[in-house]
Amino acid sequence: MKNRIFTFILFIIFSASLQAQSEADYKPALETLFNAFKERNYDLLKPLLDPNTKIADFPKGMNDRIIPQIMAQLPTPFSYSVIGKVEEKDGLRIKVFYSTINGAMEKSFLFNNQGKIIDFDVLEGASVMKKQFSQLTSRPDRVEIPFQIHNGIIYVNVLLNGKEEKFILDSGAPSLILNSDLKIVKNMPEASSKKSIAAKGVGGAIKNINEVHINVFNWNGIEIKDAKVLTMPLSHVGKYPFTGLIGYDVFKDYKLTFDYKKRIITATLNKEAEEYGKLLATIPFEMEHHLPVFRIDINGKTYKMGLDTGASANLLYEKYTEEIKNFIKNDNKALILGAANGVNARQGKIKTLKIGDLEYKDMSFAFENNTLDQINDGYKADIDGLLGYEFLRQHVTTVDFISKEIRIYSGT
Questions:
Q1: Domain limits of the chain?
Q2: Rounded to an integer, what distance in angstroms lies between the CA atom of residue 126 and that of residue 114?
Q3: How is residue 325 annotated by DSSP?
Q4: pTM greater than 0.70
Q5: Are 281 and 337 within 8 A, CB to CB?
Q6: CATH superfamily label, 136-254
Q7: Which numeric CATH code is attached to 22-121?
Q8: Distances 216 to 156, 198, 383, 402 between C-alpha atoms, Å
């Protein structure tokens, strides 16, 4: 009986310093990658990895935990050859043809100037890790979701393993994340306590990031079943108890309309735009990782802002306060709570700013660097600030992840 030979392609990205070099120069790295996958030996691969290698939407610093699990699931290659090279901003993408006997997959890697892999895209083909990536098992076409507001944060009801729990809707989170401080989460199966995964957030390092297995997550019909989900300590975020964060990966295929007056979120898959009163502005955005990014204008200067539904305060880099100092009032300091322990930051109101054709007056902002540095560094983003509750609450706002635009309505 003939063996069916399948093939998969691995994309390998090398540092800019390797771009002009011949194939022979990066042959040792290719051989190391091939042997590591062939032998399922993470110790061979590990010297090629940067400590903060990006692995899909997981927090950085998870190399030792995630990559061995994936390698254990990949088909074993028996040969390889280079079939293409593409120069990119951060390095050289090398396309490699791997022959296997039982699978077909694509992978991608990015090497920095020191020859270390900084982007390790290996989820495709690894079934266990795919379940960690919040795959929806039910997607209703349209659903209206009631919500509550506490200190500028959106709370919604969710059925988690059949029990109603409170969650925060947070587009600033890349995926579904559970609060490991709670007993209900600690008692879930497959949680790991042997090794802590490192990540960073407001106020510094976040520790004790692990994984648990959930049976069912049901958010008004939007459902995830039989999945692995990240956990981290979150009880210090806000003053209202909650079980987890609903992040971008859960609603990325939807249009979300926020009506703060009615306390309703409308999620729809319909490509046709629904109207919620008079259309006041349409703002195109680009996705930088999991954040919609668009531009605002303050005193004739343009700033790139990310939209974060979990942000109770708008943020702007403190370095910009000097150039807009005449547009800031009520300047003082306050504590901002985040995924770590929080930081003290300047805050005030910007007298006037424009988003699209709309003018917003006396919008509150916090001016600090740490949170924005962590986002830009961690997700390779390039934003000057974040807009959250103070922006969304003023009008009915549709965030259309399908058409990549924000539409602002007068409301009905």
A1: 22-121, 136-254, 264-409
A2: 28
A3: G
A4: no
A5: no
A6: Acid Proteases (2.40.70.10)
A7: 3.10.450.50
A8: 16, 27, 35, 26
